[in-house]
Amino acid sequence: MGYTLYGNTNTRAFRVVWMLEELGLEYTHVQDAPHGENVRRVSPLGKIPVLQDGEAIIPDSGAILTYLSDKHGRFTAPAGTPERGQQDAMTFRILDELDAVVWTAARHTFVLPKEDRIGEVKPTCAKEFGRNFEAICAEMKGDYLMGDELTVPDILLVHCSSWARMAKFPPPPESFKAYFNRIRSRPGFQAAAAKSAG
Ligand SMILES: N[C@@H](CCC(=O)N[C@@H](CS)C(=O)NCC(=O)O)C(=O)O
């Protein structure tokens, strides 16, 4: 029994598709929406993505990326090393400072019931996201966030930047452009983007 990924590619499931493609793994992809019937069958929470590995069910994009990279020993520093501590610090920082901020804007634009949305929150999120994005890009250690190799936080950073573009947040810092061109030339990213488009 191999991997099964639940979740549409226009959600955080894209992150997992990208990782699976980078790792060159076979997987079944169930293109279900949040709270879809297939998703609920494996994860009552209904949130996507969810990864099934044999009998094991693993929700949460950050957890899944970490699981896959540890299991296959690629795109991560080894667990229990200082480098991994630093990498995880960047992972959690991106989730706190970018993912949560752009997601708050999205919730108040199209996710929450209309009566619960506060439109004024969006410009504040855009400003905060821009500040955080710039600071993170300024700390890039090499061709990729943590040095010479792609690691888990790169996948999160690039995905959050695509959501920021869709939310019409201010453009990314100048230094992000060359980095993104490097990302774009990766066959794993191209394969994931092609699945997302198709
Ligand atoms: N921290 C989780 C968040 C998962 C999440 O909220 N996913 C969205 C789609 S991108 C969803 O399923 N939303 C439905 C809901 O919140 O009930 C992750 O990174 O996977």
Description of the molecule:
It is a single chain. With 198 residues, the chain is an alpha+beta fold. It has 2 domains: 3-75, Glutaredoxin, CATH 3.40.30.10; 82-186, Glutathione S-transferase Yfyf (Class Pi), Chain A, domain 2 (Up-down Bundle). The protein is built from 8 helices and 4 strands, in the order βαβαββαααααα. The chain has helices at residues 13-23, 37-42, 61-72, 82-111, 121-138, 152-166, 174-184, 187-197, and strands at residues 3-6, 27-30, 50-53, 56-59. Strands 2-1-3-4 form a 4-stranded mixed β-sheet. Strand 1 (3-6), helix 1 (13-23) and strand 2 form a beta-alpha-beta unit. It is globular and about 45 Å long. Glutathione (GSH) binds at residues 11-12, 34, 46-49, 60-62.
Brief summary:
The chain has 198 residues and is an alpha+beta fold.
Total number of helical segments?
8
The helix fraction, in percent, is: 55-70%
Shape: globular
Low-confidence spans: none
Biggest pleated-sheet summary: 4 strands, mixed
Task: Give the SSE layout.
Elements: E1 3-6, H1 13-23, E2 27-30, H2 37-42, E3 50-53, E4 56-59, H3 61-72, H4 82-111, H5 121-138, H6 152-166, H7 174-184, H8 187-197
Parallel strand pairs: 1-2
Antiparallel strand pairs: 1-3, 3-4
Glutathione binds at residues 11-12, 34, 46-49, 60-62.
Task: List its traits.
Glutathione S-transferase Yfyf (Class Pi), Chain A, domain 2, Glutaredoxin, 8 helices, binds glutathione, 198 residues, 4-stranded mixed β-sheet, 2 domains, alpha+beta
